[in-house]
Known about the structure:
Order of helices and strands: EHEHHHHHHHHHHHEHEEEEHHEHEHH
Distance between the termini: 12 Å
Largest sheet: 7 strands, mixed
Number of strands: 9
Strand content: 5-15%
Helix content: 40-55%
Radius of gyration: 38 Å
Mean pLDDT: 80
Structural class: alpha+beta
Amino acid sequence: xxxxxxxxxxxxxQQWPWRRQQQKMVKICAYGTCNSDTRYPDRVLGVRFFPFPxxxxxxxxxxxxxxxxxxxxxxxxxxxxTKHTYVCSKHFKEGRPTKRYPDPQPADGREVAPKRQHVxxxxxxxxxxxxxxxxxxxxxxxxxxxxxxxxxxxxDTACLQEKHKEATPTQESLDNIRLREENEKLKQQLASLxxxxxVKEKKAQRKQKTKNSFNVExxxxxxxxxxxxxxxxxxxxxxxxxxSFLVPxxxxxxxxxxxxxxxxxxxxxxxxxxxxxxxxxxxxxxxxLGFRFNVSMQEASVIFNxxxxxxxxxxxxxxxxxxxxxxxxKMTSEYRRxxxxxxxxxxxxxxRTDRPSSLKTQSQCFSDYKxxxxxxxxxxxxxxxxxxxxxxxxxGSISDNNICTLGGFxxxxxxxxxxxxxxxxxxxxxxxxxxxxKELEQLGLKLIIPPFSSxxxxxxxxxxxxxxxxxxxxxxxxxxxxxxxTFKLVSRKVTSNLGIYIFD
Length: 504
């Protein structure tokens, strides 16, 4: 998979903040007064544990096991049976559930009778019945009459040999076998055709539903103005430009789904992108998206995750940093007068996350600024607030200086210097938290930050004026970050169900 050059893996973060540490599950026997417990190895020597039958799948077997365990209803009932309820091998007559003894021995000491084996009778086809009748007649004809003894005369022996020849397989029986095989093949072909017809009908129904469902064209033509921009954050023209960039050839699906996920391909590509943008913009639940787009909740999840990876691959490969001449020409007159050499403005933003279960990860992700667990990223904009660079997400406890190093910001500036997009003497504007003047001096750049105040005396009028000038132009990057937070999926607390896709 593609990974842009500005993305650096955090080596000191051992696990994602929301991923729980996998621990070995404790197994305890639920039978009577049995004390088998995997926490005490001396009690489970040579003991195996077997899970209870699930009430939803086999309620009858589950109730039999509960009665055999002999526990009070308040301690063990079908409502309290989970996937972690076990009975150990001590309580089975053969050491495990078998066909003869599928249930544990009763706790009251009663003997368990073996389970009766069901005898299944097979219904014979008319063809098999007729063949069996003929064979029966032949066997009867071969047996000697009751009033005659075998081997009485040579004539009888010759007669039996002739009848035995008649009992050998004839051409007619071979034809019957051949017809039976052809019949089975025809049945299989018929079943395959019926399955194909069923799939075609489902596709037709899905297409019919999609025509009348929540889609791009209907939302764009809605009598309520700017509904598409409300759902996606883009106008119709911008949406179509993004779609044409992500899907250059509409006849080829750029996302390959697994065979069991092929139902996702029934939704048109334009509607799939619309689904992803709706979830990013408003944080719609997967069940809500499934209802809007007439897909299942699982299909909506697969579509969203697949498109996020693909968009990260396509959009992450773009170079957003324009040439120096373009940046200077787009500066406002006031900005060019005060800071003619300041090419970029940098700042950090944080996204709240669920508190991780690991104490080590929790301490790494705790942010003093937000007073909670967060993920942090470095943002770079131009003088007008247009995005030019962004790092990956890092733990919230990382400092501004370290995120510049780990995020590849210095490497990016070095590459831009070699390409001619930056010149020696250019400056970077930042907040007081970025004490990176030495690193920028090594690259031939300058750092513009507000002056620090002293505890012994007040700021001089010149420092106050400089602070106000820098703050009046740093507001552009604050507004750019606020535009990111309009996408509610990242403005809210990031939950564990998003998994690693938040990093994309």
